[in-house]
Structures are given as C-alpha cells and as structure tokens.
Write a structure and sequence with these properties.
- With 101 residues, this protein is an all-alpha fold.
- 80% of the residues lie in helices and 0% in strands.
- The protein has one domain.
- It has helices spanning 12-50, 56-76, 80-100.
C-alpha cells in the first residue's frame, strides 16, 4: 500500500488490496479452527478410549493459539464462496470509510 497520511482517503486499488488481505486472513482463521476441531476430536476419542484424559493438554494449548490467531484477525484488523463474501464485506467497509472522509 502507498505511504500516505492516515486521513488521506483510500484509492480503489488500496481498498481492493486491503480487502483481499483481510479476507484471506479471516479465511485462514476459519481453516485453522476447522483443523483444530477435527484433530482435537480425534485426540479426545483416543484419550477416552485409552481411559486417560491427556487430550486436554493439546486442546488447551492449541486453543490458546487459536484464540490469539482469532484476536489478531478479527480484533486487530477490523471456501472460495466464503472468501468472496469476506472480500466483498471488506470492500464495502473500506468504501464506506473512504466515503466518510
């Protein structure tokens, strides 16, 4: 993105680049969360089958990482179909911000 004063309106190109970056970050978190759920369901099943409760450790440790990832993506930054919807949402948000300037 161009170096510019923070109050300078975003160009259409800037909006497109920022929207793509944000949508990709959100899609990355959804993929991370899906893998977390699948792997931890398997680990929990194995843990219960063994009669021990060791699966809580990876569940909590990885869960903290997933929470931090989510905080970065959703709090700090403001499928192909999912990616496109997220991309369009970011375009609309950024266009509204630009128009408000």
């Amino acid at each position: 993105m161009n170096s510019r004063h923070p109050s300078t309106p975003l160009s259409d190109t800037d909006i497109e680049q920022l929207a793509r970056k944000r949508a990709a970050a959100k899609l990355g978190w959804y993929i991370h969360a899906s893998v977390y759920l699948l792997v931890n369901l398997l680990l929990l099943t194995l843990s219960l089958a063994s009669g021990r409760h060791w699966a809580v450790f990876p569940l909590l440790g990885w869960g903290i990482g997933l929470a931090v990832h989510g905080a970065v993506v959703f709090l700090l930054t403001g499928g192909a179909g999912l990616h496109e919807r997220l991309l369009q949402q970011e375009r609309e948000r950024l266009s509204l911000q630009r128009d408000a300037w």
